[in-house]
Amino acid sequence: MGTDSAERRAVVIEDDADMQSLLARTLQRHGFDVAVAGTGAEGLRLVGEHTPDLVTLDLNLPDLDGTEVCRRIRAVSDAYVMMITGRADEIDELMGLQIGADDYISKPFSPRTVQARVEAMFRRPRTAAQAPAGAPSRDAAAAAAAPAAARTLDGTSLAHGALVVDVDARLAVLDGEELPLTRTEFDLLALLVGAPRRVWTREMLLRSVWGDEWASDAHLVEVHVGNLRRKLGDRGKDSRFIRTVRGVGYGMVPPVA
Are 9 and 1 within 8 A, CB to CB? Predict the structure, then answer.
Protein backbone atom coordinates (compact mmCIF):
# COMPACT_ATOMS: atom_id res chain seq x y z
CA MET A 1 0.00 0.00 0.00
CA GLY A 2 3.06 2.19 0.10
CA THR A 3 2.18 3.58 3.53
CA ASP A 4 4.18 4.35 6.63
CA SER A 5 3.89 1.45 9.07
CA ALA A 6 2.74 3.92 11.70
CA GLU A 7 -0.20 5.08 9.59
CA ARG A 8 -3.57 3.72 10.58
CA ARG A 9 -5.36 1.58 8.02
CA ALA A 10 -9.04 1.25 7.22
CA VAL A 11 -11.12 -0.96 4.96
CA VAL A 12 -14.42 0.45 3.68
CA ILE A 13 -16.92 -2.27 2.66
CA GLU A 14 -19.76 -0.50 0.88
CA ASP A 15 -21.52 -1.21 -2.42
CA ASP A 16 -22.91 2.30 -2.99
CA ALA A 17 -20.27 4.23 -4.96
CA ASP A 18 -21.17 7.65 -3.54
CA MET A 19 -21.19 6.40 0.05
CA GLN A 20 -17.98 4.49 -0.53
CA SER A 21 -16.30 7.65 -1.81
CA LEU A 22 -17.62 9.74 1.10
CA LEU A 23 -16.32 7.30 3.71
CA ALA A 24 -12.96 6.88 2.00
CA ARG A 25 -12.39 10.65 1.73
CA THR A 26 -13.48 11.23 5.32
CA LEU A 27 -11.13 8.58 6.69
CA GLN A 28 -8.25 9.71 4.48
CA ARG A 29 -8.60 13.25 5.81
CA HIS A 30 -8.52 11.71 9.27
CA GLY A 31 -5.13 10.10 8.61
CA PHE A 32 -6.10 6.63 7.44
CA ASP A 33 -4.70 4.71 4.51
CA VAL A 34 -7.96 3.38 2.99
CA ALA A 35 -8.79 0.34 0.88
CA VAL A 36 -12.32 0.00 -0.50
CA ALA A 37 -14.49 -2.97 -1.44
CA GLY A 38 -17.92 -3.20 -3.03
CA THR A 39 -18.77 -6.71 -1.85
CA GLY A 40 -18.46 -8.70 1.35
CA ALA A 41 -16.11 -11.23 -0.23
CA GLU A 42 -13.77 -8.51 -1.49
CA GLY A 43 -13.91 -6.79 1.87
CA LEU A 44 -12.89 -9.98 3.69
CA ARG A 45 -9.98 -10.39 1.29
CA LEU A 46 -8.81 -6.82 1.96
CA VAL A 47 -9.11 -7.28 5.73
CA GLY A 48 -6.86 -10.33 5.45
CA GLU A 49 -4.34 -8.52 3.26
CA HIS A 50 -4.13 -5.13 4.99
CA THR A 51 -4.64 -5.92 8.70
CA PRO A 52 -6.73 -2.76 9.22
CA ASP A 53 -7.26 -0.84 12.44
CA LEU A 54 -10.80 0.07 11.38
CA VAL A 55 -13.46 -1.48 9.15
CA THR A 56 -16.63 0.32 8.09
CA LEU A 57 -19.16 -2.28 7.06
CA ASP A 58 -22.47 -1.76 5.25
CA LEU A 59 -25.19 -4.11 6.48
CA ASN A 60 -26.72 -4.48 3.01
CA LEU A 61 -24.21 -5.95 0.56
CA PRO A 62 -24.89 -7.59 -2.81
CA ASP A 63 -23.32 -10.96 -1.97
CA LEU A 64 -23.09 -11.53 1.79
CA ASP A 65 -25.17 -10.13 4.63
CA GLY A 66 -23.20 -7.60 6.62
CA THR A 67 -23.70 -9.52 9.87
CA GLU A 68 -22.09 -12.59 8.33
CA VAL A 69 -19.18 -10.48 7.07
CA CYS A 70 -18.75 -9.09 10.58
CA ARG A 71 -18.64 -12.59 12.08
CA ARG A 72 -15.95 -13.61 9.60
CA ILE A 73 -13.95 -10.45 10.27
CA ARG A 74 -14.06 -11.17 13.99
CA ALA A 75 -12.58 -14.62 13.35
CA VAL A 76 -9.41 -13.11 11.86
CA SER A 77 -9.14 -9.51 13.07
CA ASP A 78 -9.51 -7.34 16.18
CA ALA A 79 -10.06 -4.19 14.12
CA TYR A 80 -12.70 -1.73 15.24
CA VAL A 81 -15.85 -2.47 13.22
CA MET A 82 -18.38 0.29 12.56
CA MET A 83 -21.54 -1.01 10.91
CA ILE A 84 -23.33 1.36 8.55
CA THR A 85 -26.85 0.87 7.30
CA GLY A 86 -30.11 2.47 6.30
CA ARG A 87 -31.96 0.05 8.60
CA ALA A 88 -31.97 1.97 11.84
CA ASP A 89 -34.48 0.03 13.93
CA GLU A 90 -33.39 -1.46 17.24
CA ILE A 91 -33.42 -5.07 16.09
CA ASP A 92 -30.75 -4.33 13.50
CA GLU A 93 -28.70 -2.40 16.05
CA LEU A 94 -28.76 -5.28 18.51
CA MET A 95 -27.91 -7.73 15.75
CA GLY A 96 -24.91 -5.66 14.70
CA LEU A 97 -23.52 -5.22 18.19
CA GLN A 98 -24.07 -8.83 19.25
CA ILE A 99 -21.97 -10.25 16.44
CA GLY A 100 -18.94 -8.12 17.23
CA ALA A 101 -19.44 -4.59 15.92
CA ASP A 102 -17.97 -1.82 18.07
CA ASP A 103 -20.26 0.92 16.80
CA TYR A 104 -23.30 1.41 14.61
CA ILE A 105 -24.32 4.40 12.49
CA SER A 106 -27.39 4.79 10.30
CA LYS A 107 -27.75 6.59 6.99
CA PRO A 108 -27.88 9.43 6.23
CA PHE A 109 -24.93 10.80 8.16
CA SER A 110 -22.38 13.57 7.82
CA PRO A 111 -18.60 13.24 7.50
CA ARG A 112 -18.34 15.07 10.82
CA THR A 113 -20.42 12.36 12.49
CA VAL A 114 -18.17 9.62 11.12
CA GLN A 115 -15.07 11.48 12.27
CA ALA A 116 -16.48 12.00 15.77
CA ARG A 117 -17.43 8.33 16.10
CA VAL A 118 -14.02 7.15 14.91
CA GLU A 119 -12.22 9.51 17.26
CA ALA A 120 -14.34 8.25 20.15
CA MET A 121 -13.52 4.62 19.35
CA PHE A 122 -9.79 5.24 19.09
CA ARG A 123 -9.76 7.15 22.39
CA ARG A 124 -11.00 4.16 24.31
CA PRO A 125 -8.44 3.10 26.94
CA ARG A 126 -6.36 0.20 25.71
CA THR A 127 -5.15 -0.60 29.24
CA ALA A 128 -8.62 -0.67 30.66
CA ALA A 129 -7.74 -2.33 33.95
CA GLN A 130 -6.06 0.90 34.95
CA ALA A 131 -9.13 2.92 34.00
CA PRO A 132 -10.47 3.21 37.54
CA ALA A 133 -7.78 5.85 37.95
CA GLY A 134 -8.50 7.35 34.54
CA ALA A 135 -12.26 7.26 34.54
CA PRO A 136 -12.59 9.09 37.83
CA SER A 137 -10.40 11.85 36.47
CA ARG A 138 -13.71 12.97 35.00
CA ASP A 139 -15.27 12.59 38.46
CA ALA A 140 -12.99 13.53 41.37
CA ALA A 141 -15.47 12.51 44.02
CA ALA A 142 -15.73 9.02 42.57
CA ALA A 143 -11.95 8.79 42.43
CA ALA A 144 -11.60 9.53 46.11
CA ALA A 145 -13.93 6.65 46.90
CA ALA A 146 -12.42 4.18 44.40
CA PRO A 147 -12.30 0.65 45.91
CA ALA A 148 -9.37 -1.73 45.97
CA ALA A 149 -8.19 -3.26 42.71
CA ALA A 150 -8.52 -6.92 41.75
CA ARG A 151 -6.04 -9.55 42.89
CA THR A 152 -2.90 -9.07 40.79
CA LEU A 153 -1.09 -12.15 39.50
CA ASP A 154 1.79 -10.23 37.93
CA GLY A 155 2.38 -6.80 36.43
CA THR A 156 -0.38 -7.09 33.83
CA SER A 157 -2.76 -9.89 34.88
CA LEU A 158 -5.82 -9.63 37.10
CA ALA A 159 -7.71 -12.56 38.60
CA HIS A 160 -11.32 -12.81 39.69
CA GLY A 161 -12.08 -16.36 40.71
CA ALA A 162 -11.60 -18.60 37.68
CA LEU A 163 -11.36 -15.57 35.38
CA VAL A 164 -7.94 -14.15 34.46
CA VAL A 165 -7.58 -10.92 32.48
CA ASP A 166 -4.17 -10.13 30.98
CA VAL A 167 -4.31 -6.43 30.19
CA ASP A 168 -1.11 -6.13 28.14
CA ALA A 169 -1.80 -9.24 26.06
CA ARG A 170 -5.50 -8.33 25.86
CA LEU A 171 -6.54 -11.86 26.74
CA ALA A 172 -9.32 -13.05 29.01
CA VAL A 173 -9.19 -16.68 30.11
CA LEU A 174 -11.99 -18.48 31.95
CA ASP A 175 -11.49 -21.98 33.35
CA GLY A 176 -8.42 -22.33 31.15
CA GLU A 177 -10.21 -21.32 27.92
CA GLU A 178 -9.63 -18.02 26.10
CA LEU A 179 -12.80 -15.96 25.69
CA PRO A 180 -13.61 -14.64 22.17
CA LEU A 181 -14.10 -11.02 23.18
CA THR A 182 -14.32 -7.99 20.93
CA ARG A 183 -12.16 -4.95 21.75
CA THR A 184 -15.06 -3.20 23.42
CA GLU A 185 -16.07 -6.27 25.43
CA PHE A 186 -12.49 -6.70 26.64
CA ASP A 187 -12.22 -3.03 27.66
CA LEU A 188 -15.49 -3.29 29.57
CA LEU A 189 -14.51 -6.53 31.30
CA ALA A 190 -11.06 -5.26 32.27
CA LEU A 191 -12.58 -2.12 33.71
CA LEU A 192 -14.99 -4.12 35.87
CA VAL A 193 -12.38 -6.65 37.00
CA GLY A 194 -9.90 -3.87 37.74
CA ALA A 195 -12.20 -2.54 40.50
CA PRO A 196 -14.24 -5.57 41.59
CA ARG A 197 -15.90 -3.94 44.60
CA ARG A 198 -16.99 -0.89 42.72
CA VAL A 199 -20.49 -0.34 41.41
CA TRP A 200 -20.31 1.46 38.07
CA THR A 201 -23.18 3.57 36.81
CA ARG A 202 -23.99 3.22 33.13
CA GLU A 203 -22.81 6.78 32.57
CA MET A 204 -19.43 6.05 34.20
CA LEU A 205 -18.97 2.97 32.02
CA LEU A 206 -19.91 4.92 28.90
CA ARG A 207 -17.42 7.69 29.66
CA SER A 208 -14.64 5.26 30.55
CA VAL A 209 -15.03 2.80 27.65
CA TRP A 210 -16.76 4.77 24.90
CA GLY A 211 -15.90 8.39 25.69
CA ASP A 212 -17.77 11.55 26.66
CA GLU A 213 -19.73 11.65 23.39
CA TRP A 214 -21.69 8.57 24.46
CA ALA A 215 -22.62 9.62 27.99
CA SER A 216 -26.34 9.56 27.23
CA ASP A 217 -26.52 6.25 25.34
CA ALA A 218 -27.03 3.72 28.16
CA HIS A 219 -28.34 1.21 25.63
CA LEU A 220 -24.76 0.56 24.44
CA VAL A 221 -23.74 -0.55 27.92
CA GLU A 222 -26.72 -2.86 28.30
CA VAL A 223 -26.04 -4.56 24.97
CA HIS A 224 -22.35 -5.12 25.64
CA VAL A 225 -22.89 -6.25 29.23
CA GLY A 226 -25.42 -8.75 27.86
CA ASN A 227 -22.86 -10.01 25.36
CA LEU A 228 -20.21 -10.30 28.07
CA ARG A 229 -22.51 -12.24 30.36
CA ARG A 230 -23.30 -14.68 27.58
CA LYS A 231 -19.62 -15.32 26.88
CA LEU A 232 -18.85 -15.62 30.60
CA GLY A 233 -21.66 -18.12 31.03
CA ASP A 234 -23.59 -15.83 33.38
CA ARG A 235 -27.27 -16.63 33.58
CA GLY A 236 -29.82 -14.47 35.34
CA LYS A 237 -29.64 -14.61 39.10
CA ASP A 238 -26.94 -17.29 38.94
CA SER A 239 -24.30 -14.90 37.54
CA ARG A 240 -20.73 -15.87 38.47
CA PHE A 241 -19.17 -12.57 37.46
CA ILE A 242 -21.25 -9.53 36.50
CA ARG A 243 -24.07 -8.40 38.75
CA THR A 244 -26.75 -5.80 38.16
CA VAL A 245 -27.24 -3.30 40.94
CA ARG A 246 -30.84 -2.24 40.53
CA GLY A 247 -31.26 1.45 39.88
CA VAL A 248 -27.48 2.05 39.73
CA GLY A 249 -25.52 -0.03 37.23
CA TYR A 250 -23.12 -2.96 37.27
CA GLY A 251 -20.36 -4.50 39.33
CA MET A 252 -18.57 -7.79 39.87
CA VAL A 253 -19.97 -10.68 41.88
CA PRO A 254 -17.62 -11.32 44.85
CA PRO A 255 -15.49 -14.37 43.99
CA VAL A 256 -16.02 -17.53 45.98
CA ALA A 257 -13.21 -17.93 48.48
Answer: yes
Q: Which of 97-111, 133-147, 234-248 has the highest mean pLDDT?
A: 234-248
Q: What value does the mean pLDDT take over residues 232-253? A: 87
Highest mean pLDDT, choosing among 89-98, 140-149, 213-222, 226-235: 226-235
Handedness of CA 163, 169, 171, 176 (dihedral sign): negative
Q: What pLDDT digit, counting tens, does each position of 114-129 carry?
A: 988 888 888 764 333 3
* 126: exposed, middle or buried (Cβ count in 10 Å: 0-12, 13-18, 19+): middle
CATH code assigned to 8-122: 3.40.50.2300
Query: Which class is domain 128-252?
Result: mainly alpha
Q: Which segments of the chain belong to CATH 1.10.10.10?
A: 128-252
Instruction: Return residue ranges of the chain for CATH 3.40.50.2300.
Output: 8-122
Q: What Å distances lie between residue 79 and 36, 48, 140, 236, 249, CA to CA? A: 15, 11, 33, 31, 28
- Cα separation values, 10 from 100, 166, 205, Å: 17, 27, 27
For residue 252, the cross-strand partners are 242
Q: Which helix (DSSP H) or strand (DSSP E) does residue 205 occupy?
A: helix 202-205
**Which residues are 158's β-sheet partners?**
152, 165
Integer distance in angstroms from the first to the last C-alpha of the chain?
53
